[in-house]
Task: structure prediction
Amino acid sequence: MTYPRRRFGSLSLEVPPGLFPDDEAPEGFAAALTAAVSATLRIRMIALDGAPDLAEVLRGRAGGGPPRQVCAMGEAYVWPGLSAAMEGSPRRTAYAFESKGQVWFGTLSVPDDLWTDYAPFLEGVMLSLDIGKRPAPSVPLFAGAGVPEVSQRTVLPDPVEGMRQRLAEMGEETVRLILALRFDEAEMRVRQIDSDIYGANALADAYEAALHQSPSDQNILDRAVFWAEHAFPEPHTDIEAEAYRTGAAARVARLRNVFRV
Result:
């Protein structure tokens, strides 16, 4: 599944819900994200400084396990790079991608007990790295190898994006049906497009919009509260569950502030 891109200057990443700006990151990072727990991804630019290959950069900065080849899937290009486990605790993984003598160096950090839940999640963000232009590697990944080639990315139509577009186009009609108190019909039409989390969020948005137009209707409020509480994915951890409960409670409070007796 792809997620909307968040831009950090010329750099962009696919950032799923549940990641936020990392306000505790030191200055100098091109991008820094954190989850509700102490799981972070931080990216900065460093100079190649004469290193003959990218593996040498990782050996000097990671000092952990052997490098493995990875690829960053940007908006238009596939960019080969390296990743390696880092020494120490919490568990960390380093990523390096080089272009024209500059290295985009990412560090993923997750507590040991949450590694299985959050490391793949954050690695997916790192491997969506796009620097806003075609990368131009100048050194090999490993000693004795050739300079890696950046390839054009084959972008297939995104079925999720198509579904979201259809839900957006249905938005005004959904609100109209809700205001006419035709709740079952409104919900059926949306759920025919998506019966999962995207449809639930579209209904939560539509009921909230309808409540703003008819703020004294108890029936609309009741359905709005129901969908506000069901507009979150299945949590993977207790911390995620608590974050979703907090988000739902905040949205319900917003709805009750709109309601007028």
